[in-house]
Amino acid sequence: MSVLNAALVGNPNCGKTALFNLLTGSRQKVANYAGVTVERKVGRLTTPKGLAVRLLDLPGAYSLVATSPDEAVTRDVCAGTYRGEPAPELLVCVVDATNLRLHLRFALEVRQMGRPMILVLNMIDAAKRQGIAIDVPRLEAEFGAPVVTAVGIRRDGGQEVLRALDLPPPPPPPAMPSGSDFHAEARRILADCVTRPSRLGMALEERLDRWFLHPVWGMVILFALMFVMFQAVFSWAQPVMDLLDAGTAALGQAVGTLLPDGALRSLIVDGVIAGAGSVVVFLPQILILFLWILALEESGYLPRAAFLLDRIMATAGLSGRSFIPLLSSFACAVPGIMATRTIQNPRDRMITILIAPLMTCSARLPVYTLLIAAFVPERRVGGLFNLHGLVLFALYMAGILSALVVARVLKNRDRQEEHPLLLELPAYRLPNPRDLALGLKQRAVIFLSRVGTIIVTVSVLLWALASFPAPPAGAAGPAIEWSLAGRIGHWMLYVMAPIGFNWQICVSLIPGLAAREVAVSALATVYSLGATDSDAANQLQPLLSAHWSLGTALSLLTWYIFAPQCFSTLAVIRRETGSWRMVGITAGYLFAMAYGAAFIVWRISLLLGWGGSP
Amino acid sequence: MIETIVETIVIVAIVTASALYWVRRLVPASQGMFWRTSADMLRVIHAPRPLRDRATQRARQTEKRPTGCGACTKCGGGGCH
């Protein structure tokens, strides 16, 4: 059976990925801002008439004269010069029907390539709601290629596209004479085929922008949104967390009673259940954090936040274009670093890659919330705000501010011409509950699969290291002190004692390099094996508050604001920069900052009398 | 006695599987080496042909040269172009 090679192209944020997901049944990330797709994705579909189609989803581009790495991918694939990728037999050019003035210009540029193409007017429902009337047959005649309509976010919104794919590929559209002005041609076609409503229809959007983009009120709204987000992370999640905590403890006790006393029971209860269970309880908090981020993404607010922060970013020598990669790094630094491909200035891109690890990734959330819950009293500030949420907000802000300072320092070393920020502000949209649910499901699957693979395997290995060799006959103290992990922890103390860490923390730092949240499971395993009271083994939080001083907790929190990232982040830095030197610089400066800041915090804690026994 | 032996075997299997998971994650090249060695061993012991072919195929798959973002090969040395 023959397979049709087709590629989705179009401006950023025209809904290519939503259409791709709809047509192929994929689950690629979509959001209401430009630059979400930075590399090509492949999917397969079968049309109603049984034609097999291999569909490529290409990064959005404003022009085929590429200015950034992601645009270069689109240009090369369309031109058939991308190695390992056959030239598409059909280009499916997607345009936002509500923003044809901008998107039709790029469609004309694609038409100029002289390849068979169809034009898809996506978001046609939104265009109708805004009173935009498009004469599709006339547009088809003017454009010189088949034109179909679509609604990428509706289940039946891709029917016309499927029917168009069923037809034989159309002949290449006529090219314009060389030197023609694409803007002028787009304006001419729009004047002939599109009727726009009076500006009254845009009044609500403009009124909203007057507040959201206001230099003062805009910033107030932005900080209020962030503030409420961190309050919600603590306030809303607690009941579900308590349930998960109780479930984990009950599972540990049930398995403990089922298995006979011995090494296998210790492996399952103290290693796997204590380790993985201590991390699973943070799932509700992570989902609440992502619910906010996804809702802001979908609503179209995030590019406005980037616009607002452009001035602050400029004080650090960066443009607002760095905002989206840095924001993505709050989920995980890996997609954040990949998203830097949308930054045109190579130096800005390198600096954004260097500072992305300073954004607080979701893997650090379990470490922060564990220590905050253990050491910060649960009380209201001003009768309104949760103190835990305030401290979490402060930790996130510390990461952001340190990133800006590092960017400023790096920019000062090599001043280059500034690139002004050109940003497309999308229309406001009510978040689609299906997309929100899909996004949360993806985050939950990612988190739980990490628990099932990375965290369980690390817990097993750490259990082995913390259980063997067994203590000699007649030895005093917990057996773990004689184990290999115990010895490694004590050796590391020579370096880590000056910043207030104990040997258990030292042991947890090594597996923490695999993934941040593993540090929590490692602490749970180490304390579980060292505990004499089986109930205490199930509750890490009270154990920490009983064994650590406030100074130690503050020092560890400070360490985690800056600490060198997990292996995956360092690997993606190597891949994106093609340089081991950059990996070394990133790991080196983050380690130096983490150690220096933790040292200062520990010394201040000692001066304040917070460094003694709890 | 038998219970202790079974318990030891189960523990060794779990710990070894976890260790192999991390070796594969940290040193992906080790996977190719593993399948190549397995294919050689299967050939030596005259294992059934489908088994040998499968191991050889996996060895070939894992030995493919790594490429850049999305299989891009234009990133030789100086980063992404």
UniProtKB/TrEMBL annotation, chain A:
Give Gene Ontology CC terms: plasma membrane
Give the FeoB-type G domain ranges: 3-171
Key word DNA repair present: no
The residues that the entry says bind GTP 1 are 10-17, 57-60, 122-125
Origin: domain of life: Bacteria
Q: Which GO terms describe its molecular function?
A: ferrous iron transmembrane transporter activity; GTP binding; metal ion binding
Cite the InterPro entries for this sequence.
Fe2_transport_prot-B, Fe2_transport_prot_B_C, FeoB_GTPase, G_FEOB_dom, Gate_dom, GTP-bd, P-loop_NTPase
Record-linked Gene3D superfamilies: P-loop containing nucleotide triphosphate hydrolases (3.40.50.300)
Instruction: Identify the keywords attached in UniProt to this record, alphabetized.
Output: Cell membrane, GTP-binding, Ion transport, Iron, Iron transport, Magnesium, Membrane, Metal-binding, Nucleotide-binding, Transmembrane, Transmembrane helix, Transport
- How is this protein positioned relative to the membrane? Multi-pass membrane protein
- Residues annotated as binding Mg(2+) are 21, 24-25
Residues binding GTP 2 are: 35-39
Which family is this sequence assigned to?
Belongs to the TRAFAC class TrmE-Era-EngA-EngB-Septin-like GTPase superfamily. FeoB GTPase (TC 9.A.8) family.
Q: What is this protein called?
A: Ferrous iron transport protein B
What is the organism field in this record?
A: Gluconacetobacter liquefaciens (Acetobacter liquefaciens)
Automatic annotation (TrEMBL), chain B:
Write out the transmembrane intervals. 6-23
InterPro entries documented for this protein? DUF6587
Give the record's keywords alphabetically.
Answer: Membrane, Transmembrane, Transmembrane helix
Record's protein name: Uncharacterized protein
Q: Which organism is it from?
A: Gluconacetobacter liquefaciens
